[in-house]
Amino acid sequence: MAEVISIVSGKGGTGKTFTAANLALALQNFGEQVVCLDTDLDSPNLALQLGHKPEDHTIEDVLKGNINELKAVNVHDSGLMFVPSSLHLTDDRVSEKRIKSMVDRFSEFADRTVIDAPPGFNEGFYSSMGISDRMLVVTNPEYQAIQDVRKIAEEAEKHGVDIEGVVLNKVEGMLEEASKEEIEKTTGLEVIQTIPHHREVSKSVHRMEPVVSDPHSKIGHSFRELAANITDRDFRAPWYSGIVRGIRKMTRR
Ligand SMILES: Nc1ncnc2c1ncn2[C@@H]1O[C@H](COP(=O)(O)OP(=O)(O)O)[C@@H](O)[C@H]1O
Ligand SMILES: [Mg+2]
Description:
Distance between the termini: 43 Å
CATH topology: Rossmann fold
Mean pLDDT: 94
Bound molecules: adenosine-5'-diphosphate, magnesium ion
Shape: globular
CATH architecture: 3-Layer(aba) Sandwich
Helix content: 25-40%
Strand content: 15-25%
Radius of gyration: 18 Å
């Protein structure tokens, strides 16, 4: 059976979609067959993070019974398979049973399904959690967000789901930010990746090219490290990536 990893957080805007898309791409680049599934129907950004526009062939089409699970699978240039959510607001709901039947179908041909889950603690969040083998919690270094992580840790424990760790995203290094150590102490979870707040992210969305699509991106390397870490692989950023980035800066490309 394919493994299901959900990317969750307490509220929107922490970087779940950014993490789901780039982690899925990094796993795909390691030679896995990955399906990335957007279950956040209220903020459907997965396709946009991947540089696609979702039109038809969405998760809502499957929920409405218009198409089967396979027809909703879109393929990114990298070969990553993904199921987007529609940009239109709908009343569709993602019950655990429905997501499970989709994911079971994908597991016939994929090694892993990465779920871009809705923010906690609504039905879609619990549905995604219910069918996950493990979860990654994305947070920003704010004290309120950390309380959300604590709540997620409690819910995961109640439901018997493993939390792999915390991705600490949008770190600016300001004095008022919560540190990695404080987060670990408060939540009892390990911070397994730290990602800076960087203009490269908004630029990559604007260019419709995820950071992992650039083989020398520093933030892309953070996702390659994360993907390697959670699948027990080794990854070391190539020593010449810094030189390539330096040359690009000089030539403004
Ligand atoms: N490390 C980062 N640096 C800069 N911008 C970021 C970073 N991570 C995410 N963003 C931006 O923040 C916004 C929210 O991220 P998103 O992944 O959509 O959050 P969520 O899915 O949790 O609601 C997006 O515009 C995204 O491009
Ligand atoms: Mg999102």
